[in-house]
Prior knowledge:
By secondary structure, the chain is α+β, with helices and mostly antiparallel strands. Strands 13-14-17-20-21-22-23-24 form an eight-stranded parallel β-barrel. The longest helix has 22 residues, at 45-66. The protein is globular and about 85 Å long. The two termini are 53 Å apart.
Amino acid sequence: MGGNTSSSVNAESNTTVEKDEDVAVVLVPEIDKLFDRDPYLKLHEDEIRRRYGAFDNLRNEINDSEGGIATFTSAYKSFGIHINQDNSVSCKEWAPGACQLYLYGDFNGWEKKRNPYQKLDFGKWELKIPANPDGTCPIKHGSKLKIVVESEDGSLLDRLSPWATYVVKPPVEEGFTYQQVVWHPPQKYEFQHSRPKRPGSLRIYECHVGIATTEGKVGSYVEFRENVIPRIVKLGYNALQLMAIMEHAYYGSFGYQVTSFYAVSSRYGNPEELKELIDVAHSHGLVVLLDVVHSHASKNVLDGLNQFDGTDSCFFHGGARGEHTLWDSRLFNYSSWEVLRFLLSNLRWYMEEYLFDGFRFDGVTSMLYHSRGIGQGFSGDYNEYFGLNTDTEALCYLTLANHMLHEMYPDVITVGEDVSGMPALCRPVSEGGGGFDYRLGMAIPDKWIQLLKELKDEDWNVGNLVHTLTNRRWMEKTIAYAESHDQALVGDKTVAFWLMDKEMYTHMSVLSDSSPVIDRGIALHKMIRLITHALGGEGYLNFIGNEFGHPEWLDFPRVGNNESYHYARRQWNLVDDELLKYRYLNDFDAAMNHLEEQYGWLQKDPGYVSTKHEGDKVISFDRAGLVFVFNFNPTQSFTDYRVGVPAAGKYRLVLDSDDHKFGGHGRLDHNTNYFSFEEPFGGRPYSTMVYAPCRTSFVLAPMD
């Protein structure tokens, strides 16, 4: 900050206001912490302060105009269609481009104009329907209804309320447009368990309820609760991330073309069944994250948000700015007061109504940049993040969302899906950051797929691999993963299938002849997961079924595959069969998670890499006092191999990927004690000698 500066203190609020040559500078309460951690950000101080100022102004406007952020983000209590305690009905919508709104449905014999809304200020509409003379409600639980929008040219347009909490697929004879159903059951599910404490180490099991069954069908909330949650608990995960929950008319969109933002998908069951699923997860100590899609919306008109009020805009930018050309979807107008009310209240809705514990925000990179990230690479040059390409309105929304969530729910967890590496995205808002707790380490799975697709094992560059696993912003937490749903979608394959391919159909039986392809695949599958888990971040994620090496890929029912569910399911029978080798991978995954639970490396400083030997293909590092050794060499084992250790003393083997019980060859002696030598190595003060079999990883822990 150049020029003469002075500061004054507001005696009433103790707020310091800095001035630069009589021009007020936006106060960011803890910006010095940001610059202490990364001095290079000082060059962009003006822009960081400007962005914080945009957030702060918006927050203050909400407080002044709406009675506080809590009231503003509780709009789901008044908007939409509500049955009151006296059995009257209150309806409220925002449709600024409409000439008139009507409500019709089963309750009025589907007469379109019998129940008109009254126009209010600022594009809002209101309708009140009194209780019947006998005191009953005129709109029954389970009945269907629609909103009619009368446009400027007099057309009557059928729409679903943007605030609908339950919509269903129609019977075949009634077409394809989803139908709004009143959800007001006489007995709502009552939660029995409180939210678990936020875990220090986050081990996420990413799930899709619909594919979580062995049968070729859409799975249900009930089946997931009964059959899948016990598996997750046994595997040692402490977080459940649910995809495709927000209603989406097209199943094949994987839940990323949302049509009804307040409705949980009815294809898996009803809202009360989802609540029970979450409650049971909480009873096991699992936190539950929602994969929330606020980056874009489906183009559907009749059962989506698109053209709700009969215009091209309403919830979205009009014209080209409101279209995502790659996703063929609509883009929200984050500068609109009512769009902010709608989206922020959407987050509150899922926290309050369903007791979710946090969110994975999808498509954050698309939100952050006017280019939507299309065709844009990010080199890490800070000018790429603090220039005109950044969409300040979207960033302001994300900052406000994180601020609101963390202020109201101190244990909330937010994860941003950002591939660009936006600096400070995962630092507190008070520092001028975006407020996320974690970002996804999206470069890591890309690196594994590249290695498996393009290079022979002996050509792997272990230095480059280590760089990918450790290349993250200091003190901005990253969720590491070897593969997620993205890597398994049609056109790609699971890591296990890249490793073993068609041999998985013939040589995964413990009774079959040994296969070099399967031996290699099982060994590398375990090593890939362990090094990603231990070195790649401050959290870890696994996609449902991949822990046991699920074969093939994901493909949802569609015309191109004759509406087949064959690849839209999880073959639990493979891991449950004691005669198949899938259980080895499953058991190793569980052992890895339980070891992390014991030592907590995800909540410790990043690993210190003391060995990355290109010729030997050996990597060793220590984290949380543990020593991790990986020999990726396909043929060479090494005796008396020196590795650095962080402390003097005696070490023992606590995890061995070559253990017989994990499908290995049992080449390591588990009774061996590893003594440290006062001989520094690889930047560590001590060292020890180990036997490192080829394609093996193992972990040493200090003995008390």
